[in-house]
């Protein structure tokens, strides 16, 4: 894509101004501005969900205004200043994730471990995907007395951990997997589908007339829900062919940060006694690339005396494996949606404090799958907190210039996923704990 500098009007072809000596904008400035813009988009997405729950902070709005202003071509050409804004974006995202966490807990109760039925139950049903739990709650309210069952999909799976949602009689289970499989899974689901966030793809003809979107979410061929009125979706469910009674399995969700910290004392003692070798955070945003099997293979090869924390739709790369149990707990602990990275940071901070060390000295490895804006915001949060040694993949964001990448690697030891998880794990065990 050809871009033009507002000052010198020279074509830049997406890599920054071609006359850097005239207006001062080079590919590193362009790279950092794009990094900031994508981070801002992620913050805005989380802030949108939090605001619907009544959670807001004017500091967020003030930063978004400043950050967007700084990306104008005639405002800031200083890479160091832009990098500082990127780190501030990470701090603001931490605030927004905390607001969203508090909003979810105040509205829907404290999440707790729960078993979820996967599959379908005979009768009419609606499939809900995306991220917006408030839309799900309103849909459930409007479904009362209709006989229509509601199923979660994708990042709505953690809804089953919240008591106020889980106890609703119309919420009966979970269907399907991550967003990139929706064209297959939505076609096979005979009822209407409600998409509540940006995970939606342009629908296939086979289910286009059954796809509804809510709020700011929209897609060509889809049908908009306005004003929180889901009556048309419910009517579509009652008019659609009934779903079959099909049981797939039961799985466990709900290891929110409070649920894990309830075991903090025992976990700390187990670490001190050498009974827990390491914690792995494996998750993030999933995608269709075959290279993402790296995360599946990596999780399968983690030591049996370790724990795996997961969150985001990246969990679908590893949740179909049987990771077993350790010390009476599942080795795979599902912490929730991608915004629940806030909870993972809470757990890491509490363990570091209890063990008398910094987060970078914990036996903790972060293996993060990257795809879109919210993943950028979470990455900036981790970096802004000084977290080092993050393994990121399966490929780098295209907007990171070589120089910007070099700076991130030098300052934060940012690493790339390799081709062989076993080799990466072997190097991990040879590296010092602070790596």
UniProtKB/TrEMBL annotation:
Q: What is its main location?
A: cytoplasm
Cofactor or coenzyme needed: [4Fe-4S] cluster; hybrid [4Fe-2O-2S] cluster
Specify which residues bind [4Fe-4S] cluster according to the UniProt entry for this protein. Answer: 5, 8, 17, 23
What one GO molecular function would you report for this record?
hydroxylamine reductase activity
For this chain's record, the cofactor binding note is:
Binds 1 [4Fe-4S] cluster. Binds 1 hybrid [4Fe-2O-2S] cluster.
Subcellular location(s) of the protein: Cytoplasm
Modification sites for Cysteine persulfide:
285
Q: Which Pfam family would be a valid example here?
A: Prismane
Q: Gene3D superfamilies in the record, alphabetically?
A: 1.20.1270.20, 3.40.50.2030
Q: Which reaction does it catalyse?
A: A + NH4(+) + H2O = hydroxylamine + AH2 + H(+)
Detail which positions bind hybrid [4Fe-2O-2S] cluster.
131, 155, 199, 285, 313, 338, 372, 374
The enzyme's first-digit EC class, named in words, is: oxidoreductase
Keywords noted in UniProt = 4Fe-4S, Cytoplasm, Iron, Iron-sulfur, Metal-binding, Oxidoreductase
Q: Which NCBIfam families match?
A: hybrid_clust, PRK05290.1
What family does the entry list? Belongs to the HCP family.
Q: What is this protein called?
A: Hydroxylamine reductase
